[in-house]
User: Which sequence fits this backbone?
């Protein structure tokens, strides 16, 4: 059995796709002759928590936690907020600049490179070295963001050289991530950040990414690189659901960020509520998750408040039930320069729910390709308001004409994204590196 140490900042009780990627791999690793231990942070800074995810942590694995030093409490103080909680994906980065916001952005951008969680590294490195010797670890996997975690792997690899293998796992881009352009980095800091990225890609024994677009971006610098996307866990999907026949429900489930604020979507809902007399009575947009202020402002400015229901956060199993019970699921790919390679984690659970999907984004991107090969409706361009309206009306009319029941999408092409299958692919990399 191969012994692996996974270094991950995000781990239950933290919530979100950054947690679930390796939580699910570790859940199934033992089936493929991999024994994993986990090194994570104690009392980390998370947008939200979901203790129910702890049920997926195998009882036989060791989970080690260390302290960290992070600037978030001070950063929030400068912004007039309390505590150390942080927005999802730098969700506040486009807020109007205040004097203290500029100061905190400058400090965060130029003194915490590559990111504000780099203060974990000294503690994590010290503990990782102890675990490696104690458990005879053969492979270390670092997963980012935060990409500072990859510097932990780099340090360990340099120390052990050929006696240990290192996999750098990327859930998002590094220097090209969408919010990088909003950071107030000086040229020296930009060069250092780029240097770190180049070194990690070049020195890791294997690089794993979640999309073909990221592979294309990294492949000239990575010795070995493979795409293993996020996916869905069949154990989660099989929990059942209850349909709300009173309303036609269009659901968005997950963290709703500023770069997912698509003007034409809100305009389409506004127009439909004006054009179809019964639409206001029958329709609900249900948003479940942390919602950026720009989204709230868009809802108000389009006069569709009465169409919207919101709940800040629910445990993951409840979120999956909402996916299954909706009539239509909303999937806006974030608007950014490199969004063709974005594969949001919820896409795969959306597919497995058998619920129709309204998808907005680049029509030639990775998400569009997955929808197409999974037997789903095509991605709609952000600007095509008529296509957005037609897609909603198509499912709305089906609901009206079929006893207020949802359409069940019958395609099973999504099954190749089941977590256990993806874990087998990951395990094959680990075995190949150590055989």
Assistant:
């Amino acid at each position: 059995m191969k012994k692996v140490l996974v270094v991950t900042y995000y781990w239950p009780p933290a919530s979100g796709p950054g947690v679930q990627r390796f939580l699910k791999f570790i859940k199934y690793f033992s089936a493929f002759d991999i024994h994993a231990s986990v090194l994570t942070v104690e009392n980390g800074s998370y947008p939200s928590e979901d203790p129910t995810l702890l049920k997926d942590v195998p009882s036989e694995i060791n989970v080690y936690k260390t302290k960290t030093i992070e600037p978030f409490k001070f950063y929030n103080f400068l912004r007039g907020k309390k505590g150390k909680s942080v927005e999802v994906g730098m969700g506040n980065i486009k807020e109007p600049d205040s004097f203290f916001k500029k100061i905190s952005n400058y400090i965060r951008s130029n003194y915490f490179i590559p990111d504000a969680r780099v203060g974990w590294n000294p503690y994590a490195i010290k503990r990782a070295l102890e675990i490696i010797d104690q458990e005879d670890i053969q492979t270390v996997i670092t997963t980012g963001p935060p990409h500072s975690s990859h510097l932990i792997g780099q340090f360990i690899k340099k120390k052990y050289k050929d006696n240990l293998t290192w996999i750098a796992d990327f859930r998002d881009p590094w220097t090209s991530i969408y919010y990088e352009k909003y950071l107030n980095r000086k040229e020296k800091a930009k060069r250092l950040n780029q240097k770190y990225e180049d070194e990690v890609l070049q020195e890791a024994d294997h690089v794993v990414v979640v999309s073909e677009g990221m592979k294309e971006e990294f492949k000239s610098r990575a010795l070995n690189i493979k795409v293993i996307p996020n996916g869905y866990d069949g154990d989660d999907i099989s929990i059942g659901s209850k349909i709300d026949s009173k309303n036609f429900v269009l659901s968005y489930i997950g963290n709703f960020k500023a770069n997912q604020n698509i003007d034409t979507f809100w305009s389409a809902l506004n127009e439909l509520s004006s054009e179809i007399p019964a639409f206001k009575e029958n329709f609900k947009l249900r948003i479940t998750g942390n919602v950026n202020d720009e989204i709230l402002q868009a809802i108000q400015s389009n006069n569709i408040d009465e169409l919207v229901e919101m709940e800040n956060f629910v445990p993951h199993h409840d979120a999956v039930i909402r996916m299954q019970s909706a009539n239509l699921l909303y999937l806006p790919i974030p608007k950014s320069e490199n969004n063709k390679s974005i594969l949001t984690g919820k896409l795969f659970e959306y597919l497995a729910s058998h619920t129709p999907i309204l998808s907005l984004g680049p029509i030639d991107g990775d998400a569009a390709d997955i929808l197409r090969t999974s037997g789903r409706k095509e991605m709609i361009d952000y600007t095509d308001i008529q296509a957005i309206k037609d897609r909603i009306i198509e499912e709305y009319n089906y609901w009206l004409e079929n006893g207020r029941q949802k359409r069940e999408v019958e395609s099973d092409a999504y099954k190749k994204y089941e977590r256990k299958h993806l874990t087998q692919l990951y395990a094959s990399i680990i075995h190949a590196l150590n055989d």
Notes: Residues 88-93 have pLDDT under 50 and may be disordered.
